[in-house]
Design brief:
The structure is a single chain. The chain is of the alpha+beta class. The chain has a domain of 96 residues: Pdz3 Domain (Roll), CATH 2.30.42.10. The N and C termini lie far apart (102 Å). The model has no long low-confidence stretch (mean pLDDT 88).
Length: 341
């Protein structure tokens, strides 16, 4: 049995151990390391926000039906060009841009591209600061992503997160599939649309475009490489040129026997449901119910596959198209026209 004196001695030893733990350097050191990491993260976000703030604008508009709306945008050139989303401005009757320092300017639409949900507007203002567009092909999952915009009209709102995924696809309002979409968990809300998504250097890696409601932390941005290409076309021509063969179509599965017999690389195709009179498809000899399975030697399994190949460079170019008519495989030569003409 432990004597009283032994208990007292053991209690004193235990108290000494507790005191030693409290005064040890390991716990404060760990806390200091955590604080140091947090401080570095905070400094990074703050530096990004300060760098890009003068370039981010609030876009206010009156629609053609008289309703008001708005979104975000950012200056991409000192001469007043501002990049934003097509869905923010395409129906605007009047546009007003508010700069970070409170200045207000009337804006004009330079061009819109609903297929990529991008648009360029312009203001006549001095002393503008423009952003730098990063190479979105170099970004990695897990890296810092900072969003700046005007959700619900609250200007210069900064949120931060990471790049959650790359190479996502989503539908534009036009129905065309948009590729190379960045997924992020940086909080976005209505009004953030058109604002920049930035890396830790304050360079734009994407244009914020959509959120999934009621999900949290699932937001999307159009990659900066796409934005750079589209903005250049819009500034130069006011629009993006694409080609068309003049058909309405739907995706359909192919019978396995047909796939094996014709040695096709896909088990689906694009069935023509309607052909516009005088269109390239009509001139080439295509008929309703034909199934398109190839274009210029590349397989076509979906409408999106066909859209991806009908780019501006195909306008006026004779191209082979492979179709199934019943169980027969046929080839035609089609000359796509510019979409909209």
């Amino acid at each position: 049995m432990m004597r009283v004196s032994d208990r007292i001695d053991r209690s004193r030893e235990f108290a000494a151990e507790l005191e030693a733990d409290e005064t040890s350097s390991s716990l404060p050191s760990t806390l200091q390391e955590d604080e140091g990491l947090l401080d570095s993260y905070s400094k990074t976000i703050s530096a990004v926000a300060n760098r890009v703030a003068p370039s981010v604008v609030n876009i206010r508009l009156t629609n053609k039906d008289g309703r008001s709306g708005g979104g975000s945008g950012f200056v991409i050139a000192q001469d007043g060009f501002i990049l934003t989303n097509s869905h923010v401005v395409h129906s605007a009757r009047e546009l007003e841009v508010a700069l970070h320092d409170g200045r207000l300017y009337q804006a004009q639409i330079v061009g819109t591209d609903p297929e990529t949900d991008l648009a360029v507007v312009r203001i006549d203002a001095p002393d503008l600061h423009h952003v730098r567009l990063a190479n979105s092909a170099a970004i990695r999952v897990g890296q810092i992503a900072v969003a700046v915009g005007s959700p619900y009209g609250f200007q210069q709102t900064v949120t931060a997160g990471i790049v959650s995924a790359l190479g996502r696809s989503m539908r534009a309002e036009s129905g065309r599939l948009m590729d190379d979409i960045i997924q992020t968990d940086a909080a976005l809300n209505p009004g953030n649309s058109g604002g920049p998504l930035l890396n830790s250097a304050g360079e734009v890696i994407g244009v914020n475009t959509a959120v999934i409601l009621p999900a949290q932390g699932i937001c999307f941005a159009i990659a900066s490489n796409t934005a750079h290409l589209v903005a250049g076309w819009l500034i130069r021509d006011g629009r993006i040129r694409r080609s068309s063969i003049g058909v309405a179509a739907q995706n359909v599965p192919l019978h396995p026997r047909v796939v094996r017999f014709h040695k096709l690389s896909a088990n689906a195709g694009v069935q023509v449901t309607e052909i516009a009179p005088g269109s390239p498809a009509a001139i080439a000899g295509l008929q309703a119910a034909d199934i398109i399975v190839g274009f210029k030697g590349r397989p076509v399994a979906t409408i999106d596959d066909l859209h991806k190949q009908l780019v501006a460079s195909e306008i006026g170019v004779s191209s082979p198209i492979m179709i199934l008519r019943g169980t027969e495989k046929l080839f035609f030569v089609v000359v796509p026209r510019e979409l909209g003409n």
